[in-house]
Automatic annotation (TrEMBL), chain A:
One of its GO terms (biological process) is glutathione metabolic process. It comes from Brassica napus (Rape). Keywords: Cytoplasm, Detoxification, Transferase. This is glutathione transferase. GO terms for molecular function: glutathione transferase activity. It catalyses: RX + glutathione = an S-substituted glutathione + a halide anion + H(+).
UniProtKB/TrEMBL annotation, chain B:
GO terms for molecular function: glutathione transferase activity. Residues 88-208 form the GST C-terminal domain. It comes from the Eukaryota. This is Glutathione S-transferase. GO terms for cellular component: cytoplasm; cytosol. GO terms for biological process: glutathione metabolic process; toxin catabolic process. PANTHER family: GLUTATHIONE S-TRANSFERASE, GLUTATHIONE S-TRANSFERASE, GST, SUPERFAMILY, GST DOMAIN CONTAINING. Its main location: cytoplasm. Residues 3-82 form the GST N-terminal domain. Its EC number is 2.5.1.18. Belongs to the GST superfamily. Tau family. It comes from Brassica napus. Keywords: Cytoplasm, Detoxification, Transferase. Is involved in the conjugation of reduced glutathione to a wide number of exogenous and endogenous hydrophobic electrophiles.
Length: 224, 219
């Protein structure tokens, strides 16, 4: 099939947890791709043209055709490159369950959610943000249970959806003065397990680097 | 094995409508169980412990939650009749994108209908109209969002049509004036049995609003 061999370009931002999902998915499938780093304060023509509705990264451009929204990109990658193992189980009930948990992760563990923690000084707003984050992470931890991955023995769709935020935990901890490991030890153990995978190690930036970026953002938003 | 399909739902829900339509499109027999959202049943709480919301689709005793996830589940479980999603991965990604975008209209509608003051309501109306216009330009001059085939994106949006009268009354505007192609599309959709059977009565929805407003103030 010719489709899989067409050029793949990802409009990216290195710290974006959403873009990390797509990079992990591409790497899991062994797909060759180019990344174009975007300056989010000065978006390229290509980005604005490829994602006119949201004007956001990541945008996956395959054979010149753009796909937007990271979880939609992960599903697209799964459905296009079918030689490698699928990210979703084959049974419709199990697939619906995986989609449910990815959707839950998407709604509850987010850049905006994190911002309530790093984007505020110590106080009521930050405490609220911390509580929301940890309450949701605990629900995810209960779903993970004692499994190695959300997919059971297999690293799958839900793991891909959530693991990018592992690279942001350190920043949230520093800004919020708390420990994710103390609250959700199984999630942290799961995160460490995931970063042993090549696809994840190659796609997640170092936590310290993310923290430097968060400090820059705090300055820009006038937090400190 | 005979499939047992139960839908826990609430009659005006624009999310529940999606699942009803998908089941009807596939000609699946299901038991509809009306839920009292002020007094949630043990079954609802057991089947959707995370969100405690409707609709919940129960297939052979196992729950599926979230309306668009239910629509995909229905399409995958009964693949032969009336496919709801295209088979090409790129077209599927486009359909999912628009389903996702349609869901993003909800906060604006929330402000419009339940906003604390006039300013919030106006903001909500503006957001909703802008987004609906974006959806309208995606539709263009096609019969349905899927072209000639009624599918996922149509199903994602048509539930809102049951609430259009309520939005117009409380927002004091005309959706037809703003988005005529959307109204024309909706009128085409309601000619389908699956949609006609599943949409709530617009008048009854509008009559329900004051009661819902009161409940929201209490929450």
């Amino acid at each position: 099939m010719g489709k899989e061999n067409e050029k793949v370009v990802l409009l990216d931002f290195w710290a974006s947890p959403y873009a990390m999902r797509t990079k992990i998915a591409l790497r899991e499938k062994g797909v060759e791709f180019e990344t174009q780093q975007e300056d989010l304060w000065n978006k390229s023509e290509l980005l604005l043209k490829s994602n006119p509705v949201h004007k956001k990264v990541p945008v996956l451009i395959h054979g010149g055709k753009p796909v937007s929204e990271s979880l939609i990109q992960v599903q697209y990658i799964d459905e296009t490159w079918t030689d490698a193992a699928s990210f979703l189980p084959s049974d419709p009930q199990a697939r619906a369950n995986a989609r449910f948990w990815a959707d839950f992760a998407e709604k509850t563990i987010s850049f905006e959610g994190g911002r309530k923690i790093w984007g505020n000084n110590k106080g009521e707003e930050q405490e609220k943000g911390k509580k929301e984050f940890l309450d949701s992470l605990k629900v995810l931890e209960a779903e993970l249970g004692d499994k190695p991955y959300f997919g059971g023995e297999t690293f799958d769709y839900v793991d891909i959806a959530l693991v990018p935020f592992y690279s942001w935990f350190y920043s949230l901890e520093k800004c919020g003065d708390f420990s994710v490991e103390a609250e959700c030890p199984k999630i942290v153990a799961w995160g460490k397990r995931c970063v042993e995978r090549d696809s994840v190690a190659a796609s997640l930036p170092e936590s310290e680097k993310v923290y430097q970026q968060v400090l820059k953002l705090r300055q820009i938003f006038g937090v400190e | 094995m005979v499939d047992e399909v139960i839908l826990l739902d609430y009659w005006p829900s624009l999310f529940g409508v999606r699942t009803r339509i998908a089941l009807e499109e596939k000609n699946i027999k299901f038991d509809y169980i009306e839920q009292d959202l002020c007094n949630k049943s043990a079954l609802l709480l057991e089947m959707n412990p995370v969100h405690k919301k409707i609709p919940v689709l129960i297939h052979n005793g196992k729950p599926v939650c979230e309306s668009l996830i239910q629509v995909e589940f229905i399409d995958e479980t009964w693949p032969k009749a009336n496919p709801l999603l295209p088979s090409d991965p790129y077209q599927r990604a486009q359909a999912r994108f628009w389903g996702n975008f349609i869901d993003k209209m909800l906060p604006g509608l929330g402000k419009l209908m339940w906003g604390a003051n006039g300013q919030e309501q106006e903001e909500g109306k503006k957001e909703f109209v802008e987004m609906l216009k974006t959806v309208e330009s995606e539709l263009g001059d096609r019969t349905y969002f899927g072209g000639e085939t009624f599918g996922y994106v149509d199903i994602a949006l048509i539930g809102f049509y049951g609430w259009f009268d309520a939005f117009e009354k409380y927002g004091n505007f005309s959706i037809e004036a703003e988005c005529p192609k959307i109204i024309a599309w909706a009128k085409r959709c309601v000619k389908r049995d699956s949609v006609a059977k599943s949409l709530p009565d617009s008048e009854k929805v509008t009559e329900l609003v004051p009661e819902l407003k009161k409940k929201k103030r209490v929450e």
